[in-house]
Write a structure and sequence with these properties.
By secondary structure, this protein is an alpha/beta fold. 35% of the residues lie in helices and 21% in strands. The protein folds into two domains: 8-105 and 240-267, Rossmann fold; 109-235, NAD(P)-binding Rossmann-like Domain (Rossmann fold, 3-Layer(aba) Sandwich). Helix 1 (22-32) packs across helix 8 (237-253). 46% of the residues are buried.
C-alpha cells in the first residue's frame, strides 16, 4: 500500500486499536478494487474524542470506524444519524460528506444477517455501545425477549431501561448475576471483549454469537465451547467483523465490498 497526496483516508477510532484486524481487511478491499484509499488505526482517548471527530473533517478523511470505548459517546459529535444509529444510540461508522459527519451503525444489522432472531429469547453479555446496537437490532428483528448481563450491574440496568422504552411490549430484564447462568436463552451474544474465558456455558439448543475475536484467528473460549456443545449456529467475531466492515466499506466508497478478498485477508 502506497499513500500519496491523492489518497483518501479512512480511520479507526478507538482505545486500544493495535489489536484490530480492520486495517488489514479494509486495505485488502481497497486494493482489490484498485482504489487509492488507505485505512489507518487512530488511538484516541475519551477526552480527545470530540477533537478527533473534528479532525477527520479538517484532514479530509472519507470517514472512520468507531470501536471500544467510543460507540455511544461519539453520537454527540455527529451532525446527523441514520435511522439505525439513532434508534440504537450507538455509532460504529462515520461518513464525512461536505464537512458533515454522518453517523451509522453496522453492528446490529451484521449480527441480524447471521442468526435467526425472530422469536428468540436473547441473552446479551455486555452493556456498551456494541451490546446496545445489537440488542436493539435483535428487538427490531422480532426477538421475543431480551436479557442484559454485564459486570457493571448499573450499566446493564440502564441498557434494560432503554430497551424497555423501545420495546414496551417485550419481556426485557437485567440479570444482576455475573457471570449469568444463561438458562432459558435461545440466542447468546457476547458483546464484551472477553476472549480467553467462557462467560456462559452454551447448551446444544442455543445460537451463539461472539463479537470478540482473537487476532490469530483461533476460536475464543466461548466459540470453542459452543462448537463443542453442538450449537446449531455459531458465529465468531471474524464473521461479524467481515459483515459490519463490508457494510462500512460500502457506505464510504459507494461500491460493493469485495467480500471474498476481505475474508481471505482476515484468514491470514
Amino acid at each position: 500500500m502506497t499513500v500519496g497526496g491523492s489518497t483518501r483516508l479512512v480511520g479507526l477510532i478507538g482505545d486500544p486499536v493495535d489489536h484490530s484486524l480492520s486495517p488489514l481487511m479494509q486495505n485488502a478491499g481497497f486494493a482489490a478494487l484498485a482504489l487509492d484509499w488507505a485505512y489507518v488505526p487512530l488511538a484516541v482517548r475519551r477526552e480527545r474524542l470530540e477533537e478527533a471527530v473534528a479532525g477527520l473533517v479538517a484532514l479530509g478523511f472519507a470517514g472512520a470506524n468507531v470501536t471500544i470505548p467510543h460507540k455511544t459517546a461519539v453520537v454527540s459529535f455527529c451532525d446527523e444519524l441514520d435511522e439505525v444509529a439513532a434508534r440504537a444510540g450507538s455509532v460504529n461508522t462515520l461518513v464525512v460528506r461536505e464537512d458533515r459527519v454522518l453517523g451509522s451503525s453496522t453492528d446490529g444489522p451484521a449480527v441480524i444477517g447471521l442468526v435467526e432472531a425472530k422469536g428468540a429469547r436473547v441473552l446479551v453479555l455486555g452493556a456498551g455501545g456494541g451490546a446496545q446496537a445489537v440488542a436493539t437490532s435483535l428487538g427490531d428483528a422480532g426477538a421475543e425477549s431480551l436479557t442484559v448481563a454485564a459486570r457493571d450491574a448499573e450499566r446493564s440496568h440502564a441498557l434494560a431501561v432503554r430497551l424497555r422504552t423501545l420495546f414496551p411490549e417485550r419481556e426485557i430484564s437485567a440479570d444482576t448475576d455475573w457471570p449469568p447462568a444463561g438458562q432459558g436463552a435461545t440466542l447468546v451474544v457476547n458483546a464484551t471483549p472477553i476472549r480467553d474465558e467462557c462467560p456462559v456455558a452454551p447448551t446444544a439448543e442455543q445460537q451463539v454469537v461472539d463479537l470478540a475475536y482473537r487476532p490469530d484467528g483461533t476460536d475464543t473460549a466461548l466459540v470453542a465451547a459452543a462448537r463443542a456443545a453442538g450449537c446449531p449456529v455459531v458465529v465468531d467475531g471474524l464473521d461479524v467483523l467481515l459483515a459490519q466492515g463490508a457494510a462500512s466499506f460500502e457506505r464510504w466508497t459507494g461500491l460493493e465490498a469485495p467480500l471474498a478478498v476481505m475474508r481471505v485477508a482476515l484468514s491470514r
